[in-house]
Amino acid sequence: MSSPFRPVGTGRSHDPNADLVFHRGSGHCVWDATGRAYIDFIGGYSALNLGHIHPRLIAVAQEQIRQLTFCTGGNSPWRAELEQALVVVVSELGPANRNLKVWLSSTGARGVEVAWKIANANRPGGLMRFDLSYHGRSLATSHISDTQRSSALSGFSKTYPMGQEVDGVIPYPRCGSQCDGHCAECDASIAVAQRWLEKNGRTTSAMIMEPAIGARGYYFASGEYYRRLVRTVRQHGLLVISDEIQMGLGRLGSMVASHSQGWMPDLIVFGKSLGGGITPISAVVGDAIQMDQLGQGIESETFGANPLACRIAIEVLLMLNDTIFLEHVRIGGDRFRELLKRSLPNGCAVDGRGMCTVIDLTSFRHESVDVAWRWVCQLREQGLLVHLTGAHRERVAILPPLNVDEDTLRYVASILSESLEKELGSGQNVT
Ligand SMILES: Cc1ncc(COP(=O)(O)O)c(C=O)c1O
Fold first, then answer.
1. Does the beta carbon of 112 sit less than 6 angstroms from any atom of ligand 1?
2. Which of 140, 174, 250, 320 has the smallest number of Cβ neighbours within 10 A?
């Protein structure tokens, strides 16, 4: 049955699920406007780390709605409490005795822009980023988000109206999470960074990086690679910004993904799931010495730090920052990937960390470039929503809510392998 509701907005993405109209959600399930249920393993690309309408979050939201939702200037007890909670989260694995400060914004892109402003105030200059970077779609963050693809899709030329060319673009190693960080690809990537820095180090303010690549294909370089890169960047006095909007707050099995990989950014940006899937909110956390460079009046936002968003975010942090819960994310994710490796047809490459898994179908592209597209459509028919990604749409990303149960993960693993076998033709291996 087709949906009676047709969105008429422009610029919807090229995604096999883009025409779905959602009507209701609960936990890992979502229903479309016709009443059809789906398992939602896209999860707002990490906006739904606790699933849809979590009862505990709805309860605090309802309480807050009855008390105070907005205040001019944003100062409220919930803002102070949230700022302190974020400092605790970032202090846990980081160096002792840091004097941390927090800035709260609405969206992820705004959070990245604030971090960029802070870095620029510390040392005016450009940014370094990965070739597979994605940091948002505002005018500023479009500029540092895989511009080739963004500009091809949006019609923008390489130079956005930002007034300057800012990019030092570092190739992100595609060698995967099992690499020791010293393979030829990792070495080549570090060498590109070194060459860029030797020439442009003094006029570059920061390197911005995700602790694993999200929107641009879900790639997972090793902690050792990141540690090498961060050492290289620091030798030239740049700040390091970790964009943990998608991969932080539990997605990879730890609250602060960079810290768990053994590298310490100067500025960390959180977003998405901080708002519990209810309200947009993002945060930049960093040392006071850098954060204070954000002078008076340089930054403000009407809805930044509003009491409703802060109250929900406090509860989100309480729920996510739990050792046993995070262990479930790590172990559950590992088991899920093991299951997939055993059951998917030969030729599928499975990688990931925590509750973030990607299946690469590159080796089937000679069959049909559209194999991943068709598979995602077939999965949708079977009631499972997953995310088609990668430069050639050859990768399928799976992002369950972090509190998903093991039975559901096993069930989804079986749907994935059975449907791909069918798609490839009676279970034939074609590698
Ligand atoms: C790593 C990363 N940074 C920034 C953003 C932008 O966040 P928002 O869409 O809330 O502006 C996203 C969104 O997908 C993201 O994945």
1. yes
2. 174
Note the pLDDT tens digit of each residue in 159-218: 444 545 567 999 999 999 999 999 999 999 999 999 999 999 999 999 999 999 999 999
Rounded mean pLDDT, 250-255: 98
> How far, in whole angstroms, is CA 14 from its chain's centroid?
19
pLDDT digits (tens, 9 = 90+) for 113-154: 999 999 999 999 889 999 999 999 998 898 888 755 544 444
pTM (2 d.p.): 0.94
For ligand 1, atom 13, name the residue with the nearest CA: 136
Give distance in angstroms: CA of 246 to centre of ligand 1.
7
Full DSSP string of 209-243:
E-SSB-TTT-B---HHHHHHHHHHHHTTT-EEEEE
- Those residues whose C-beta lies under 8 Å from the C-beta of residue 362, and which sit 6 or more positions away, are 349, 392, 394
Provide the 3-class DSSP secondary structure of residue 81.
Answer: helix
Going from the Cα of 328 to the center of ligand 1, the distance in angstroms, rounded, reads 25
Nearest CA to ligand 1 atom 3: 135
**Which residues, 6+ apart, have CB-to-CB distance to 196 below 8 Å?**
128, 168, 170, 204
Please tell me the distance between residue 47's alpha carbon and the centre of ligand 1 in angstroms.
Answer: 10
